[in-house]
Structure formats: structure tokens, C-alpha cells
Amino acid sequence: MSGLLRPGAHRAAGIADDTAVLAALLRVEVAWARALAAAGLATDAQAAKVAEAAAGLDVDLPALAVAAEAAGNPVVPLVELLRDAAGDAAGAVHRGLTSQDVVDTALVLLARDAVARVRTDLLAAGDALAALARTHRDDIAVARTLTQWAVPTTFGLRAAQWLAGVDDAVARIDGLTFPVQYGGAAGTRALLTGAESGSALAADLGLEAAALPWHTRRATVTAIGDALATATDALGVVAADVLVLGRPEVAEVREGAVVGRGGSSTMPHKQNPVLSVLVHAAAQQAPGLAAQLHLSAAGAVDERPDGAWHAEWPVVARLLELAVTAASQAAELVAGLRVDTAAMAARVDVATATGSLDERGGVGDAGRLVDIAITRWEETRG
């Protein structure tokens, strides 16, 4: 998809583009050759030659993409290139693997690195939100329910709820696992057998060993999708609130001004809340992508899926890019957020004077709830 239609995608450059996918596929093939050598099924010299061949491989990516159609995946033509380059070590290339082993493990590698990027930006966003919640702990504002004025609250509690959403997302990410895939042609692990099969591959790649192949058990993939959607959900709530609260007729918060950002092509007086718009857009897309992963998981039949697995690839790549981009944008958004407490207090006065605000309970336990959210965040941060 054109980068012109994905504003901000440069923030996720190298996360899951063709160059990154190729590098991950080759890393898996090299690590497998070393695993074969460790098991006595190849020599150290063969494994070294495979690694050397992979490092020097000059791949025409558009041509490889075209060649992938003939086999239904890019591994088959890539293995042919790698075997040619490996010369007399060709027998150590891809021996005992199947294409799905390589693609699945490569995507897990990409996901692990992307999720780490998302987590870093979630922590930065959370720290900024915790500071907002602490600063505005007792600053009164109008709470809105079903779009209407309801009762008094504090901006600190609103920021604390945003913070709690980010905290939930970090917890979801921290529960993820990133296992290698090794099953062979039909999930029987016919070549490298035994309880430790695949452990050398996992250790080489910094991933987790899998007790069983997961060719048709896609919980690893759906869990990654769900965690990233949870993150964009939380960030989307922040962005949506900022968009509402930043309307000129509300003007309680606004994005920090950055030279060159937020301009209009026809109205030079405007300063559009671009980061909020883009984060909100990401939050609208991610749940559908995560749902597609579940649809694919439900269609993973027999010992190797017949299209459901293939449908995952572009979805995973897009979701990784989307989440990395949105998390980066959101961290910048909340760090630069400007809060107008005077406007909030004035709105409380208007709402009270017109009888549109029920003040009987005051702000209730808002302050303590803010403290709970901040303490919980500090525990997450360690």
C-alpha cells in the first residue's frame, strides 16, 4: 500500500516492509542451519557457509514477490536462491523445515521487535498521562455522559482513566509469548525429534521454544493482534476525547503546536489536531485487523491451512505498522497536550447556573481514584 495513504507510516519504517520480512526469513534459515549443526545433522562449516551465503545474498525483491506466486509463499523461491549461493553447503539449507515454519517464525521475530517499540511508546505516553493526572488531580471539570453534562469531575480523573487504559495495554503486551515454529511438512517434526527439538533454533533467535508445532493453532498470532488492538483502543480513547475537548466551542484541551503541522490546504487560519486524528484513525482500523486474525485462526484446517494462514500475513504486517505508528504519535500527543483549567472551571459555573449539572455528590472519590491509577502505573513501571 502506498505510503502516501498512510500518514505517519515513516515512524514504523523497517517494521514489516519487504526488506524487513526478507531479513527475518533469512535469519530463520541461518538459525536453522546452526540448529542442524548443533544436532549433528550438518557440519559447523556448512552452517557457517549458509550464514555467509545469506549475508551476501543479493535479492531482487520485486522478482521474488512475483516468484512467490508459483508456490503460494516467498520461502520456496528464496530457498532456491540461498541453496544456489551456499554451494556445497546447500544440503543444510531448509532441511527438515516447511515454508510455514519459516514464515511463522519470521513474523514472530518481526512482531517481537514491533511490540517492543509499542511498549516503549506506551510507557512514555503513560508517564506523561501520570504527570497530567497528578498535576490536575483536583482541577474541576464537567463530566459528560451520553454527550451531555452530568456531574462534576476532575480533569485529573479523566487523565487517570486514560492512564489506566494504557496500563491495561502494557499488561496485555507483557503477557505475550513469542515462540518459534517448527513442525516440518505436516507437524510431525520428522527430522529433528525429541523434547528439545527446536530449542536451538529458539535460542539462536532469542525466541521461546514451543512444546508443540502450532501450524493450525493460531493463538500466538491472535494474542499479538489482540494486544496491539488493546493498545490502539486505549490510545484511541485519548485521541477521541482530545478531539472533542479541543473543539473551539469546548476548548478545554488542545494539541501542542508544532511548526508545519496541522495546516489546512485552503484555510490558513486553521490548526488541525493532526496527531489526534491519526491516532483515532488507527484505533478505527486495528480491531478489524485483529478480528481478521481470529477468522483466519478459525479456518486453519487439517495439518496445514489452505489459505487461512496466507490471509494472516498482510494483516499482521499492517497491524504491526499501524500500532507502532499510533503509539509513537500518541506518546507525542500526550506529552504536548495543553490543558485549560480556567475553561473547565468556567464551564462548571455555566452548567451549574443553568441547572445542567447535578452537584449533590461533588466530585465524589475522584482524588483517591487518581491516586490509585498513578500508584498502579508506578507498579507497572517498577
What does this structure look like?
The chain has 382 residues and is mainly alpha-helical. The protein has one domain: Up-down Bundle (Fumarase C, Chain A, domain 2). It has 12 helices and 4 strands. The strands form 2 sheets. A two-stranded antiparallel ribbon has the order 1-2. The chain has a two-stranded antiparallel sheet with strand order 3-4. The longest helix has 37 residues, at 99-135. The protein is elongated, with a radius of gyration of 25 Å.
What key attributes describe this structure?
Fumarase C, Chain A, domain 2; mainly alpha; two-stranded antiparallel sheet
Q: What is the second-level CATH architecture?
A: Up-down Bundle
Give, in spatial order, the strands making up the sheet with the most strands.
1-2
- Gyration radius, to the nearest Å? 25 Å
Mean pLDDT: 95
Number of strands: 4
- Taken together, the total number of domains comes to 1
CATH superfamily: Fumarase/aspartase (Central domain)
Principal-axis shape = elongated
Q: Please bin the fraction of helical residues.
A: 55-70%
SSE topology string: HHHHHEEHHHEHHEHH
